[in-house]
């Protein structure tokens, strides 16, 4: 658990972070979101002491971090940044093994860990272990960056706009993988982004920041339903909010079981159980229909009429 | 890398070294040839000291000077790029670039009133002069390392020394060695001028030839200094290539 109590950071006369209170629980995926210069990156870097906080208490598992050894602290916190920061003169495997080696793991365990992580991030060991960062695509380099951050098996993972420089398709696939990995390993993740869609998609807890202050802290659904002020509403995309919320809900949550006396259903387009309501709405608009058949893999499991989607949003 | 490729890689420096050796051993046998160059002189082969002795002395002077300037230059440049030495960075980099505009002869001339004649003032002057390219290139090399790489290195929990030793220096090695190469090559030439202030170097035949109007002496000295300079330069060039960070596995 990471706790910030009245944490402040001053750079000279400017107040970068202004007495914020924040509590990030074990296993949570907390996304700090806001416009550039709002203090979100500064907040993130205060957690691993790349930036020392000016005042306030910042504790990890109850220990004030300014009391801990700086290097020991960082070795138990994973850190991934937008430009990856991979060492260009080291091959992929050596880059990943950096933290385990700093931690003094035995060689065999380090080698095993590297294999395991490349596997976890869908980078075949034989193909990638000996490549240099300059030979990787942006997406592959970022995967290696994430693998390196995870290598020391840290409890906490800090990510500073890790997918910010990637094309939309690569970004989306990496977001999905991050969610998959998080389900597998269950770390405490603090993620910084300026992209509200990314925040809504990934977060279990969203922290909206502006001018060094926390404006609102809420789950994605709560945030969409009750934005604290116009700034948050604007960040959420104004009139697009309905669609964004639909994007958070799964078809599985709102579908109805198949009723036998519904002949019109045979013609209805097909959607998958784990797709979002946003995709369902889009299909209805495209196919000009009011209901969809829901499949789980190859088998029909239910149907989804339009009014359920609309209700779903009201009652969520 | 297969040994045949390795041999080829070092081929050029080996070729120049062979030329140098051949010249050292062969020049005394070319009396007839040099007589054409300097007609009217009774003696056309420089014999006051053997060429091998001159070469050894020359190398010793340059080597000692290089040792001093490399260690001081590296230490200085590393110091001013650390957080606690940053205040001296502008001063040091200015001195380093200003010093480059000084002609080497002037450095030697100025060192005589301070240190007198002989080998010691020559070494000091060479070390001082050779310091500058080392400092300048080390500064450039260290400053050109991507800040994101340094941030992530610190963020991973590397100590300042580990960051320097495992990240900064390897990434800057190419540029730093470029500076060392310039420093050594310039000093091989400058050391010859050391003969004017009483050091024994390959410059001896040149100076003596100039004083007595014996072109043959001048030529012998010049040939040896030239071969030595290209040998050292190509050696350091290969060294630079072989230590520069490999960032592409296809280069294997």
UniProtKB/TrEMBL annotation, chain A:
Family matches, as SMART domains: AAA
Domain ABC transporter span(s) in chain numbering: 2-236
BP term (GO), one: quaternary ammonium group transport
Matching Gene3D superfamilies: P-loop containing nucleotide triphosphate hydrolases
Keywords: ATP-binding, Nucleotide-binding, Transport
A molecular-function term among this protein's GO annotations: ATP binding
Coiled-coil segments on the chain, per record: none
TM stretches of this protein: none
PANTHER family from the UniProt entry: GLYCINE BETAINE UPTAKE SYSTEM ATP-BINDING PROTEIN YEHX (PTHR43117:SF5), OSMOPROTECTANT IMPORT ATP-BINDING PROTEIN OSMV (PTHR43117)
Family per similarity comment: Belongs to the ABC transporter superfamily.
Name listed for the protein in its UniProt record: ABC transporter ATP-binding protein
Native source organism of the sequence: Nitrincola iocasae
UniProtKB/TrEMBL annotation, chain B:
Keywords: Membrane, Transmembrane, Transmembrane helix, Transport
TM annotation in the entry: 7-30, 59-81, 102-132
Domain of life assignment: Bacteria
Record-given protein name: ABC transporter permease
InterPro entries, alphabetized: ABC_transp_perm/SBD, MetI-like, MetI-like_sf
GO process annotations (BP): glycine betaine transport; transmembrane transport
Membrane topology: Multi-pass membrane protein
Pfam family, any one: BPD_transp_1
Family: Belongs to the binding-protein-dependent transport system permease family.
Main location: membrane
Protein's organism: Nitrincola iocasae
Annotated GO CC locations: plasma membrane
Sequence ranges assigned to domain ABC transmembrane type-1 in this UniProt record: 55-236
Places the protein is found: Cell membrane
Keyword Glycoprotein in annotation: no
